[in-house]
Amino acid sequence: MGIQTLGYRAPEVLYGSVAFGPSIDLFSFGVILAELSGCNSFRDMKGGGWSAVGYGVALMEQLGTPLGNLEVTGLPLFPKKPPNFRPRPFPAAVIDKLGSHGSALLAGCLCWEPSGRWTAQRCLTSSFINPGRFDLGGVLQAHRPKQAPYNARPLLCIGFGSHRSLLIWGGGSGQ
């Protein structure tokens, strides 16, 4: 499926769900937040190369293998016998940059189950973002570009200086 860039893909998209919503964007935001904090766990694809299989293994190595009767484990492309990994803590440097509130935001976004993931509204009320200052040096700001993706609305915008910003879009036609 051609939804989302592989390195930021939500598990439900990776494993073949055709029914997904804005929570896929929040998972991507979590991966981006981890990367901005210095974590490259999702890019370290041992043996799998840059592939869906390698990315899936990298997710399991960091987040732990999803177990039990979860939505993601019942998807058509989820491995029949996945590798067994326990969740791994993020590197100390990442935790130091994010602090406890940023770490909670990261954990809330990087949840295997879409229904367990934080919503954009919940992220915006996080103590890490509110009152709008990021430990990483960015400023939360409202931003409306001249051209927006078709049928989408901005979920979250993070500004990093006067010329760079990260805008998370959602609510598009993928539902």
List keywords for this structure.
9% strand, three-stranded antiparallel β-sheet, 175 residues, Transferase(Phosphotransferase), domain 1, alpha+beta, 30% helix, 5 helices
Give structural notes.
- This protein is of the alpha+beta class.
- It has a single domain (6-128), classed as Orthogonal Bundle (Transferase(Phosphotransferase), domain 1).
- The chain contains five helices and three strands.
- It has a three-stranded antiparallel β-sheet with strand order 1-2-3.
- It is globular, with a radius of gyration of 16 Å.
Map the helices and strands.
Elements: H1 11-14, H2 23-36, H3 52-63, H4 92-109, H5 120-124, E1 139-140, E2 153-159, E3 165-170
Antiparallel strand pairs: 1-2, 2-3
